[in-house]
Amino acid sequence: MFIVTAVLLFSFVPGEGDAASFTQSRGVFLSSNASFPVPATGDTIAEPCKTPACQFRETYDKWSSILRDTAFPEAHARYVFHGLLISAGLFLVSILWIWLLTRYARKRTKQLKKTKERYRALFENMSEGVVVVVAGRLALMNPRATRITGFLPNELSSRAIAEIVTQQDRDTVKEAHRKIMRSEAKSLRFPFRITCKNGDTKWILNNSVGIVWENTPCILSIFSDITENKKLEQQFLQAQKMEAIGQLAGGIAHDFNNILTAISGYGNLLRIKTDSDPALNRYARNILACSERAANLVKSLLAFSRKQVNDPKPTDLHDVVKGAEKMLRRIIGEHIEFSIIFSKASPVVFADSNQIIQVLMNLATNARDAMPGGGKVTIRTETVDKLEDPLIGDNIPAEGGRYALLAFEDTGVGMDETLVEKIFDPFFTTKEAGKASGLGLATIYGIVKQQKGFVAVQTNPGSGTTFNIYLPIIDTPAETRQVIRIGTPPRGTETILVCEDEADIRKLIREILESHGYSVIEARDGEEGIDSFRHHKDKIGLVLLDVIMPKKSGKDVHDIIVSINPRVKTLFMTGYAAETLQNAGLNEPVSGCLFKPIETDILLTEIRRILDE
Question: Nearest-CA neighbor of 223 among 195, 193, 201, 199?
């Protein structure tokens, strides 16, 4: 800029050799304008000049006199100085302007870079997946979306969004995108399932909103993996369902057990009375068999709801399986190969052996039905130092511990994933109506959970099924149970007070006891039982109490009669589940307790045992 200014100044400011040329140019100019009369130099003008020629002459004389009176070197220096001063000012202003522009540009560039890095960090480190869908195809995705789906960005860039959405949810996703693109909704939040690269199905919770991407309307989707939440939700719903069925089972068990007690009791009396008549005796035994089946059904209801009476003790798992082997072979049938493979060490678990046998029986029944044309069943035991079965899910306890594995394998038809999700549901069955109650596997689940264990299912259509049952191992030696063999029912002559609100049960017990030599006093409720005891306290040898009765419970009656006679002997009976006993205050029973339906021989034996103590 300085150089350009200097050149302009030198081209317009006259130099020392330019005076003559300027004077000559004056004559040339005047000669070229001959039409305008120019007064001679030095003439006196009396009047103001009004013609153009006169005005030009005045202007010319004025400036020519300045040129004649001023020294050219001094004028040149002044003009050059002023030009340099102006140029320097312009130069400094330009430098300042350029510096300010450069500083602003660097600041803005730094801000943009920082903003870009900030948004990139947010985009790449978000806990949710982010994708941009343009015309139904994936145009952009962040690393979290890659981890959720398993697909790399270049693998999904050419794919339509519908390709990774499961068939069941494609219409839902398409309808949501249509509403957003047509501005019928600003944003939508909804869950759906996707198929990952490895073939797994995952639930995602998606938030979609319409944006403009590279001058094109599109959809921005932010989603999170809620697969585990869905599993927990299903487990919660399953627990709620089983709790509801369990409450129902506990409620109806009392009535069922009272009815079954009467049926089996009178059936036993009929069996005893008809020993000399084989035909009638066979009818009585059939009645007893049916009542036993009904009693087992009630027990199954209570088992899967985990309300069945549980009597856990240190139990050798191998001894339980060996004891049930013959029965399992009869259930499975001769057309199916049966084998047992025991581990070297015999694991001891804290469980109810009868319930473990019930689990094996239910599994054997299912295996038999899954192999109508024959096959193979294998029971295998192992000792597991660390529970790591992925089929159990997130329910594995954090404290760990050793477990005994009881695996029940068959080579039947197997099950698909849809069936596996429902097999433990109560009343769910794949068999024909009337062929199964749908409580077999639900009972197994309830029993295993009641023993503080876990159950996992491994199966595929056409490749058989394996049930893996894990039970906690304890270090306590196993207890040897003595089997009580009942021969002829014992008799007696004592007086027994029977407090029972069900008339049929009361009459039945009276008839059983009186037929075996006992005297019976009846009471219909708790208060009547207390009054009867006060009137006959000197001759009553034992009080038989129903746990739940009108007016006063069995526990209340017990406390009062004990205060009257501390040496009185009592025996409880109930048709309710164990949980009801705890609510009634019998966490630690003060005496024995019989659970309905009560077998005649067991009732007589237990009464005799308590009286003889």
Answer: 193
